[in-house]
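In keeping with the milestone schedule agreed at the kick-off meeting, the structural modelling team has produced records for the first pair of proteins. Each record is given below as a sequence line and a structure-token line. The laboratory manager (R.T.) confirmed that both were archived under the project's standard naming scheme.
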Amino acid sequence: MLTRTHTTGPEQAFLVPQVREFAHLHPGHDGSLHIALPLGLAADAIRHGWAVAHPFAGIRLTAGMVLVYGPRDERELDIVTAIVSTSHAWATGEFTLPAA
């Protein structure tokens, strides 16, 4: 979670906007995590098989909320790290969506 002074991203950049949570790692052996992504990037992650949409995404939760699968090797760890870095950058205002 981030403090309000470190977050300038939009509300959609957070799983729980009130507490500034942009991602959380699940306990257990699989290493999966829930994360908020810009909608287009969430769609890319789903299309590439790295994630699945949360059942409440776009209904009760931000539309770009996905479950990212836990990495099984170094290559997948690099991909998941990049996904988390993008989410963090969006939450902190360091990543902006291209103008439509």
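The second protein of the pair:
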Amino acid sequence: MKNIAKVLISVSVVATMVFATACVGDLKYDDPYSKYNLDDYVELGKYEGIEVTKPEVKVTKEEVKAEIDARVADKTTEEHKKSGTAESGDKVNISYVGKKDGKAFEGGSTGKGGTDIVLGASGYIAGFDDGVIGMKVGETKDLDLTFPEDYHEKSLAGQPVVFTVTLNYISVPKTVKYDMDFIKSVSKAKSKKEYEAEVKKELEKKKEATAKNAMYGTLWNAIMDNAKIKKYPQEQVERAQKEEEEQLKQYAAQYNMSLDDLIKNMMQMDKTQYKKYAEEEAKRMVAQEMVFSKILQNEKIKLTNSEYKTRLKELKEEQGIDDEEFKKASGGKTFEESVDKNKLIRAFLIDKVCEDALSKAKVK
């Protein structure tokens, strides 16, 4: 199953693109634009009969082979060798305690299960990997090392330390062959030819979806270019800013960063630049929401209970979400509860607007 936080954020980002009044059978949600006369804020341009080119959808033998190779590689497991000597390039599991002046320093020790590193590519301070190379499984050894002068933790920069390291085991990949045993473990196909045809069909389906999304993007860009935004409801701009900031906080949390660190280090902005960016991004979002809302009103696009269930099932299949696994990983919450049903409805309405525009487009 895909990383839950990423799934929730991606759905949330899509869903916040549109807030519109729609009759969805028994499903209803609040429309923040219901109190506005959208004619005062937005004027739609041409959104029917837009020219769009469909990308070519073709799957080659090489792509099928590459996909199968990747699936076989995914089945590779690891065997933990409890004997032997560590060599450069080996993936090993080690436990260690780092001490400065005889006392363990913060962040310098592993937990109970140790940690995995690849010798020669661990990224640890100079001499660490070389000290582990040549150790035997089960051996414990002291490494007398020195942190670099420019080390980010000032209290350790240029300081001599001792790492007491234990080599727990050496990981050896246990490869899988592309044979009928592999095919039986992942498919109901009766032969390699049948399985390869199955994989080709799956790749074609993915490429079709990618092509459709590309056309949706082209259509939507044209729709926005053709629309005229007269003014922005300030209340909605402020709401969009708060939502954007919350999404950035969630993104930062995935990397154990604060929002300020993300803005400075990843977005490379100061506070003034970020404030301007946040307002512009909020206005862009509100503009899209108003255009979507106006199209929904004009075209009377609706979402039924049946459509909702079908699209929800397709979304979960696409994201590789298993209901029981999701509950376990999210503290007992269902996917709908975690994402927010209203946001799912909005996301599905976005799809319907794009589908409607594509059905009326001039596809070349």
